[in-house]
Amino acid sequence: MATDRPDRSREQASDDERAPINAAPPESTVSVTGTDHITLIGSNEEDTIAFYRDVLGMPLVLRQPNLDDPDSTHLFFDTGDGRIITFFVGDYPSQDGPQRPSVGAVHHLAFSLDPEGFEETKRSLDEAGHRFSEFDRGAFHSLYTRDHNGLTIELAADKYEILDDRRGEVLAAAHHNRVEAGAEYIDDEHLEAALEKLDMPIERYDLPEAASGAGVGD
Question: Domain 36-94 has what CATH class?
Answer without folding.
Answer: alpha beta
